[in-house]
Amino acid sequence: MNITISQAPEHNEKTVTIGAWLENKRSSGKIAFLQLRDGTGFMQAVVAKNDVTEEVFQTAKDLTQESSMYITGKIVEDKRSPFGYEMHVSDIEVIQIAENYPITPKEHGTEFLMDHRHLWLRSKKQHAIMKIRNEVIRATYEFFNDRGFVKVDPPILTASSAEGTTELFHTKYFDEDAYLSQSGQLYMEAAAMALGKVFSFGPTFRAEKSKTRRHLIEFWMIEPEMAFVKHEESLVIQEEYVYYLVQSVLKNCRLELGILDRDISKLENIKTPFPRITYDEAIELLKENGFDDIEWGEDFGAPHETAIAENFDNPVFIVNYPKDIKAFYMQPHPERDDVVLCADMIAPEGYGEIIGGSERIDDYDVMKQRYEEHGLSGPAYDWYLELRKYGSVPHSGFGLGLERTVAWLAGVEHIRETIPFPRLLNRLYP
């Protein structure tokens, strides 16, 4: 019977065959320990000289790192292993002997590993990160589907900027100028006016010349938009969503968190509701902690976000930012004309902003005024303004950055390890 490593617990004390690669091995005169991987997991296979033919034992000894094989044996429980099971081998059928695999078990520098990203993905820790990423994606679909959201796919090629910035990748759309999307939000608002509660999940692009551990050129965003939902209700949905992701990873990725040596107590302590502080209070907090490099009206940098987060065990909302440093579409505060109804969610442990969201302007005249202030004109923006003409309603939305969220949940230092093939300032391949 052919099975995968992940199915091994279901076949205890049974003889099975697994298609696998050799991650590593060690051997003595009479026994060989093969560390196997097959994409679904990792498992040890034990080849005892007295239990197999001479040919099979020699084959085991000749295997090299990343050689591929069909390996047959009995699954037995092994309480010493984090996986809990191992294989006692009876036969090995070699598919290919790999020679001079560039990534050996020894240590390599980051640039070397990034040059060999197509191979580095095979390592146990990188595999664990990808499994956690997959769980976040799975749980995302589950969370929104269970709450009546409809998945909508906004375009990747657009004629306008959602944020009103210049950090866009320009291309030609036949004879017209076009840009790679930096957010699907504007289109998701249109979808929300048709379908009520919607979410998107797709790639976004930022032409930021940043080399920090928190930034990628290409990353993935989950962007819900909700009709008839105001700012406060949106904050509740955001914290419920993030809490759901934390619980899903804790439940379904224990083995992977262990491989990464993640301190799970920090995740287990996450509780809702998340604390909230105003932008004004955040500035005061920073001043009290000796930060003299920021004034009211300026946006927070990574050191500021980290310093704020250190005061909380949970993710923290920073609400009501100055309108001049936020996007044109954000709803003005009902009691102040200098701030807007928005929030950034800052993750603990120095991982920075993982969510940005706001209530959107729903009044036609107010939005028209913001258009004039920001010099927005032409068909690329006209349709968005028109949404406020025909049955406009209060609505809110937010965007969660997948890779930053995975980095926080997995306890990974650099965001480049949370996406299979990262696009960085100096890296377009592999």
Helix percent reads: 25-40%
Radius of gyration, taken over Cα atoms and rounded to an integer in Å = 26 Å
What do the pLDDT scores average to?
Answer: 95
Q: Write the CATH homologous superfamily of the largest domain.
A: Bira Bifunctional Protein, Domain 2
- CATH class term of the largest domain: Alpha Beta
The major pleated sheet works out as: 8 strands, mixed
Number of domains: 2
Strand order of the largest sheet: 7-11-12-17-16-15-14-13
Q: What would the CATH topology of the largest domain be?
A: BirA Bifunctional Protein, domain 2
Q: What fraction of residues sit in β-strands? A: 25-35%
Tell me the CATH architecture of the largest domain.
2-Layer Sandwich
Number of strands: 17
The first-to-last residue Cα distance is 36 Å
Poorly predicted ranges (pLDDT <50, ≥5 residues)?
none
Structural class: alpha+beta
Number of helices: 13
* Shape, principal axes of CA atoms: elongated
Order of helices and strands: EEEEHEEHHHEEEEHEEHHHEHHEEEHHEH
Structure explained in plain terms:
The chain has 430 residues and is of the alpha+beta class. It folds into 2 domains: 2-96, Beta Barrel (OB fold (Dihydrolipoamide Acetyltransferase, E2P)), CATH 2.40.50.140; 118-418, Bira Bifunctional Protein, Domain 2 (BirA Bifunctional Protein, domain 2), CATH 3.30.930. 31% of the residues lie in helices and 26% in strands. The chain has 13 helices and 17 strands. The protein has helices at 54-62, 110-115, 117-120, 124-146, 185-195, 231-252, 254-259, 264-268, 279-288, 302-309, 364-374, 379-386, 402-410, and strands at residues 2-3, 15-27, 31-37, 42-48, 68-77, 85-96, 150-151, 157-158, 170-173, 176-180, 197-205, 218-227, 276-278, 316-319, 342-347, 352-360, 395-401. The strands form 3 sheets. It has an 8-stranded mixed β-sheet. Strands 2-3-4-6-5 form a 5-stranded mixed barrel. Strands 8-10-9 form a 3-stranded antiparallel β-sheet, with no helix packed on it. It is elongated and about 85 Å long. The model has no long low-confidence stretch (mean pLDDT 95).
